[in-house]
Design a protein that fits this description.
Largest sheet: 14 strands, mixed
Helix content: 25-40%
CATH superfamily of the largest domain: Hotdog Thioesterase
Strand content: 25-35%
Structural class: alpha+beta
Order of helices and strands: HHHHEEEEHEEEEHEEEHEHHHEEEEH
Number of helices: 11
Number of strands: 16
CATH topology of the largest domain: Thiol Ester Dehydrase, Chain A
CATH architecture of the largest domain: Roll
Distance between the termini: 85 Å
Length: 442
């Protein structure tokens, strides 16, 4: 049996280590808490004793200790009954424990595609499964990596013929998920692989697709289908288009330019502008990419406005620009406000269940940190009766949202967004206004 005095010394040293401000002697007849160990430090004390004594203390055992003397007695009994248990020799270093190595990072494949794998950990999750904001950040990162890997130019060194820094900003983003495989279906610890294509129009525009799927699904550039075919097969796809800009007169004034780095000639070239350019211009003129199908009825009247104050420490990136991945966050924050108002108001518990099926976004301008944004909404809800549902009460709740975002300082249009969403875990019959909505006829 290990000497009790030795064990008491180990326990006293551990208590002293985590209570540096307590000068009174350790009283073994009292609990750890009575000796100045707070609830968080109790976790550290338990771990420290397990390491020092080479033992495992279960939750029931730990919660059963009324005094530090109980701890000493348990450790003494355990060290006698479990081979190898007992205090580690003084001065013997611990053995570091390492987990699995981290991901290798994005890899440029011989076919010119960039490939990466990511796990949906806490930083990738939002209010309801996979976060659109976090996904956009990852996709944006992959685009910069793709540019750098092919061209041999770090993003910070992209410059025009006047040697001025350029920023590859997004002007069009299309996030497209299968109707039954929307963002909420991707949960913590799910793994996603990304196969990214990219091409250029001259040196003015970039366009490319990112095919998302489980890591065990093989992808090859020669066999990658069209986006609608990929979505029909049950996988999400993202399309992202870029132009290059430089700042003059602040973030609200961005001047378009072209990179002069010779490495850009290595990018595959197309002879006509990508159609994302014409889609963006049409959305800018029309105020939306699309109007809802005839089975949708008005939930929020067109032109319903909400204002949003930019928060510099959260909403801007390192270049001093409003981060493109945050634009949809502004939309969702303000969308929540309008969904809670009016005759067909939704409860927060319902709004929390929003899950993105598709969002097309036209990025048109940026803003200074001191500006305020104005967002105009039109929102529709699918009437399951008009949609021909065999069981309207049990039909899923589907939303169609058109949004225009302007900066208040001069009224310039910053974003046009058209999105389709579903409220997960909620049926149309759960809505308090279901009868009224279902009675609407085309």
């Amino acid at each position: 049996m290990v000497d009790a005095l030795n064990i008491r010394a180990v326990v006293e040293a551990a208590v002293r280590e985590i209570t540096p401000g307590v000068t009174s002697p350790v009283d073994f007849s009292r609990s750890a808490v009575d000796n100045g160990v707070d609830s968080l430090a109790l976790l550290v004390l338990r771990e420290s004793l397990e390491r020092s004594m080479s033992v495992h203390i279960t939750d029931d055992e730990w919660l059963g200790f009324d005094t530090l003397e109980d701890v000493v007695g348990f450790l003494q009994r355990t060290s006698a009954s479990r081979p190898g248990a007992g205090p580690a020799p003084i001065g013997e270093p611990g053995i570091p424990v390492t987990g699995a190595s981290g991901p290798a990072g994005p890899i440029l494949r011989p076919d010119g595609c960039l490939y990466d794998v990511i796990e949906v950990g806490m930083p990738m999750t939002g209010r309801n499964g996979l976060s659109e904001n976090a996904l956009l950040k990852w996709l944006g990162h992959l685009r910069w990596c793709h540019i750098s890997e092919i061209c041999g130019v770090p993003s910070k060194d992209v410059r025009d013929e006047d040697d001025q820094r350029l920023y590859p900003t997004f002007f069009f983003v299309d996030l497209w998920f299968p109707a039954e495989r929307h963002t909420a279906t991707f949960q913590e610890n799910d793994r996603l692989s990304a196969t990214c294509t990219m091409q250029r129009f001259g040196s003015s525009m970039l366009d490319g697709l990112t095919y998302l799927c489980p890591p065990d699904v093989q992808t090859d550039r020669s066999t990658l289908p069209e986006p609608h075919e990929w979505v029909a097969a049950g996988f999400p796809v993202a399309r992202l288009s870029n132009i290059f800009v430089k700042q003059f007169g602040g973030a609200e004034w961005l001047k378009k330019s072209r990179p002069a780095n010779p490495g850009f000639e290595k990018l595959p070239e197309v002879q006509i502008p990508p159609d994302s350019y014409s889609l963006t211009k049409t959305a800018q003129n029309d105020g939306a990419f699309e109007q809802p199908p005839s089975s949708y009825v008005t939930l929020v009247d067109a032109g319903t406005r909400v204002e949003y104050d930019l928060v510099p420490d959260r909403d801007l990136n390192g270049a001093g620009l409003v981060y493109f991945a945050n634009y949809p966050v502004f939309v969702d924050i303000c969308e929540r406000q309008v969904l809670k108002q009016g005759r067909f108001a939704l409860a927060d518990s319902h709004i929390d269940r929003r899950s993105l099926v598709r969002r097309r976004s036209a990025y048109l301008n940026n803003a200074s940190a001191s500006d305020r944004l104005e967002l105009d909404f039109a929102i529709w809800l699918e009437n399951p009766v008009l949609a021909g549902s065999p069981d309207p009460q049990s039909a899923p709740v589907r939303l169609f949202v058109n949004t225009r975002m302007r900066r208040q300082s001069d009224g310039r249009l910053m974003l046009v967004s058209t999105s389709q969403k579903v409220l997960t875990g909620i049926a149309c019959g759960d809505l308090p206004f279901f009868q009224e909505i279902s009675a609407v006829r085309a």
